[in-house]
User: Which sequence fits this backbone?
């Protein structure tokens, strides 16, 4: 017998239909973005608090040989680097191909879906967001601002037998608040195999017990902090990309045209990715302290010991992926009819779930291409590297996922384009269109989500965008 057809509750009762969207949310977001003061009075106080938390708790990260890893080992059959619990993550081999490019590499496999959650709450009619001063072993300065909750499933189910994750229940039982954003998002497709995290923003009205490692901030304050190097971590930047903006009603392309273009790009790309034993990856050499490419390029796998009394576990060891060289991530931007647009790329990566996602105009480690002629370098790399300072609208250093990557830092740029050139694989998209797609899974990659958040820290054109920054402006 077939299952009965589900009928919406409103069809069977007198329950009124609900609005599909919160019509007032974008205005509340704009008010928060226009507010540069809150419970933390000014930027200097916030930065001072962050530094005081860095001094208050001793942190130490030391490189160790693989043999000194506690609970981690190389599987005798595959050579994969695994944890004895079978949880957390593994380092395996990946055999990948995208069109005519083929390669093999180590890759981090983490099938668990973690939670990246930010609590929101109104104070005196202004929306604030609760960020945490969190230590991560891979951060070059160790402590940065993170989401309210940043935890893998292994962490919050206490595989490590550590302390409970503070404020977790607001995201595992969101009926306690109003969900403003909730989306599964990919992470670095060049270093992770199909990793996803649940990015959430939940608004609460009840009192939240205060803690010295957490601070309520307006979007205006967060915007100011995004202009500083190494302050707001990758996970916070990713979650905040889901904050809705006041989108302009017109753009260079319609939404349907852009989605059709992306589907066409995905369908045309011939891509494959297959995991295989780490011990069999050609061109990569395992030594007592690291796994390196034979040409000492791209990245290496290392081991560290960590001491951090503010974390759920005070001491542990783990592997980390350490890139070779500083990255460069950039959007070219241009106004069309007074509406700001960025040039996105359909970027295929071996570790992505759906072949390709919308990426920045430029996303690479320039050192990997330093010896190549211009025709073999990534499109627009020379354009952004040689841009006149007057064309640079945003520039800051940001680190990547500090729980898995060691000293992974990229220069994030927004550069004014000199023309509207749009080569194959690239499209101009308005800020509002990109922000709308970032509220859905597997459209916008993690680097583009960081830049989307950073776009709100670019100066607005008086009389065009109508506000002090992106969240407060019509995009």
Assistant:
């Amino acid at each position: 017998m077939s299952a009965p057809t589900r009928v919406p509750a409103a069809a069977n009762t007198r329950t009124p239909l609900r609005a599909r969207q919160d019509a007032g949310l974008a205005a509340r977001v704009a008010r928060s973005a226009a507010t540069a003061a809150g419970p933390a009075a000014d930027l200097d106080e916030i930065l001072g608090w962050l530094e005081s938390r860095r001094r208050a708790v001793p942190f130490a990260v030391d490189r160790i040989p693989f043999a000194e890893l506690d609970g981690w080992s190389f599987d005798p059959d595959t050579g994969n680097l695994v944890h004895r619990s079978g949880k957390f993550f593994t380092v395996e081999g990946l055999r990948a191909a995208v069109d005519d490019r083929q390669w093999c590499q180590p890759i981090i496999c983490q099938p668990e879906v973690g939670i990246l959650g930010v609590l929101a709450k109104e104070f005196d009619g202004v929306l604030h967001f609760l960020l945490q001063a969190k230590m991560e072993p891979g951060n070059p300065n160790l402590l940065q601002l993170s989401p309210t909750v940043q935890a893998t499933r292994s962490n919050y189910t206490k595989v490590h037998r550590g302390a409970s994750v503070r404020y977790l229940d607001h995201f595992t039982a969101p009926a306690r608040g109003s969900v403003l954003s909730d989306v599964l998002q990919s992470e670095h497709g060049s270093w992770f195999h199909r990793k996803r995290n649940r990015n959430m923003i939940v608004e609460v009205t009840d009192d939240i017990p205060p803690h010295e490692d957490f601070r309520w901030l307006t979007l205006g304050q967060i915007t100011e902090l995004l202009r500083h190097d190494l302050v707001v971590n990758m996970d916070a930047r990713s979650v905040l990309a889901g904050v809705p903006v006041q989108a302009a009603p017109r753009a260079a392309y319609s939404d349907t045209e852009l989605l059709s273009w992306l589907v066409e790009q995905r369908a045309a790309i011939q891509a494959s990715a297959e995991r295989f034993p780490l011990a069999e990856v050609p061109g990569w050499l395992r030594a007592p302290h690291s796994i390196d490419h034979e040409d000492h390029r791209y990245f290496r796998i290392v081991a560290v010991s960590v001491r951090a009394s503010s974390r759920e576990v005070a001491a542990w060891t783990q592997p980390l992926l350490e890139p070779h060289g500083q990255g460069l991530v950039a959007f070219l931007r241009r106004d069309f009819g007074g509406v700001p647009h960025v040039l996105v790329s359909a970027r295929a990566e071996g570790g992505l779930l759906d072949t390709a996602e919308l990426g920045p105009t430029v996303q690479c480690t320039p050192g990997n291409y330093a010896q190549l002629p211009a025709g073999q370098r990534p499109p627009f790399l020379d354009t952004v590297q040689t841009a006149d300072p007057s064309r640079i609208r945003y520039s800051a250093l940001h680190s990547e996922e500090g729980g898995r990557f060691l000293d992974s830092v990229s220069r994030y740029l927004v550069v004014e384009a000199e023309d509207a050139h749009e080569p194959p694989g690239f499209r101009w998209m308005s800020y509002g269109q990109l922000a709308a797609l970032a509220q859905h899974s597997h459209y916008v990659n993690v680097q583009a989500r960081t830049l989307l958040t950073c776009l709100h820290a670019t100066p607005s054109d008086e009389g065009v965008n109508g506000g002090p920054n992106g969240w407060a402006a019509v995009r």
Q: What stands out?
A: Confidence is low (pLDDT under 50) at residues 461-468. The CA atoms of residues 43 and 103 lie 46 Å apart.
